[in-house]
Amino acid sequence: MQLNRRQMLKWMGATTSLALGQPALFARAATGTEIELEAAPVMHKLHHAPEAQASTLWGYDGQVTGPTLRFRQGEKVTIHFTNNLPEPTSIHWHGLRIANAMDGVSGLTQEPVQPGESFTYEFVAPDAGTYWYHAHHKSWEQVARGLYGGLIIDPAEGEILPETQDHLVIMDDWRLNETGRFDAASLGAPMDWSHDGRLGNWLTVNGESLPRFSLCKGASHLLRLVNASNSRIMEIDPERFGGKIISFDGQALPNAPTALGYKPLLLGPAQRVDILVEPQESFTLEELSREPFAFCFFDVTTPCENVAPFVPPRPNPLPVPAKANRFKFDLRMTGGAMGRLGDIVYQGEKMQRGDFQRTKQFWAFNNVANLAEEPLFTVKQGEAVELNVINETAFMHAMHVHGHHFLVEDRDGNGVEFDPLWRDTFLIGTQQSTQIAFVADNPGKWLFHCHMLEHAASGMNAWFQVE
Ligand code: C2O
Ligand code: CU
């Protein structure tokens, strides 16, 4: 049985406006440039109510959320990864512009790491900012079970805030059953795959139910929000607590901090936003897309001694795509429930009625579901690429380009409200068109997919070649 949020609340006798949470448990930070990381099953409680049972999840280093990995821009990082899960896996460093062989896409950039085996990831992150890492093999199941963590790249030079003023807020949306456990029975439900993905009924921050953070009155605090959910688009409103926006997807806005009215502020799966607060009073971070639902509480204490001032980040060295001589590609997104399924080709064959339930392929880019054997397009290294994406489905999607950041230049032919934003994942509304552009400066095979992980698994998945 699937409970909705209201039923969950009733069952727990809890209201989210009550301060029920325990102290926030913070993932430990990794230090040094050479680390070990292990994926394995882990028992973890996802709901704070005493009667809620612990779930068997999958985590990194015995935790859900995994340890926060924190490195410096430009430094060489070595991660010795061991898979102690009952099935193969791989790790993707979401948003980092690194060598293709280290991108962690099983079946495209590497073979999956078998149970009991290891793989060494090595990279140099060229850009500072807030990123995250997650499993990239059967992501729809492995990320849902907890295989993700935060990834912070500090600027190569300059001041950063001390840990007491820098907070990672990784938000997830879980589907719990009536015992409060992770609902594993509904993983892979065709109904989710053909509609808006696996949506849950309970929210966590850093793997905890309603955690509390403590902030110093009037001091600058950076809140690094990451949406790690499979498919939930989260709506937040920083204005409610006087928050200003510093960056999206790790890339600082040119005029940061800014109170520009990104309203409503939607955070799609895999997207990040860094928010600066200088709080005078305690506040609650809430998800607002339906009735307000608390993520976590920020308790503001008396002023602290020795607080550091916030220094706006410098822009990262992202290559700006020239307007002239672009490689242009039109991409039409189709399929899904209430959408056109009739033209979808899968593994070289046009699908017929009845094939959809069998193949679980419901979505397509330019009529092809899960383009695996050949690239969507091929460009030369250094070429400016312009993608014109049109969403002809009845659902919103969160589109992610691997290995590159791009500028969101246009929506529906009307330009964009503020300066074009650098992103690695963009939301696209139903019947909306969006133009993005980037310089394909990194050779290899790069994935382009919907980050609603059920949509990626059921057709919205393809790659392009930079040579
Ligand atoms: Cu965040 Cu293809 O992934
Ligand atoms: Cu999608």
TrEMBL record:
SUPFAM superfamilies: Cupredoxins (SSF49503). This is Multicopper oxidase family protein. Residues 49-156, 355-467 form the Plastocyanin-like domain. Residues 1-29 form the signal peptide. Pfam families: Cu-oxidase_2 (PF07731), Cu-oxidase_3 (PF07732). PANTHER family: MULTI-COPPER OXIDASE (PTHR11709), MULTICOPPER OXIDASE LPR1 (PTHR11709:SF2). The lineage of its organism: Bacteria, Pseudomonadati, Pseudomonadota, Alphaproteobacteria, Hyphomicrobiales. The keyword Signal applies. Keywords: Metal-binding, Oxidoreductase, Signal. It comes from the Bacteria.
